[in-house]
Write a structure and sequence with these properties.
5 strands, alpha+beta, two-stranded antiparallel sheet
């Protein structure tokens, strides 16, 4: 089962750290990379069961800096894969969906 285009089968999203993209394409913003939703706040909840959500205080989150997502983006992996495929083709790379 093949997709019609690059990224067609990549349906999930994630919180994306841009370090690798910065190294590959330093001007990715100007190039139109599909990173449009910056993370502006971190909120975590403990879900002890299906009925309750207990917020974890922000002060505790500072004890684990890896949980901070500031500076990252919420993205569609399918859109990013499609865009990366377009960039590879523009550099005369062979890309097969």
């Amino acid at each position: 089962d093949k997709g019609v285009e690059i990224g067609a089968h990549t349906l999930s999203g994630n919180v994306f750290e841009t370090k690798a993209l910065d190294e590959l394409f330093p001007n990715w913003k100007e190039m139109g990379a599909p990173l449009d939703t910056p993370v502006i706040d971190d909120m975590f909840y403990w879900l002890p069961n299906g009925k309750h959500a207990v917020p974890i205080p922000g002060a505790l989150l500072h004890l684990v800096p890896e949980l901070s997502q500031h500076g990252n983006y919420v993205i569609s992996l399918g859109k990013l894969c499609k865009w990366l495929g377009e960039q590879a083709e523009a550099m005369e790379g062979e890309v097969y969906p």
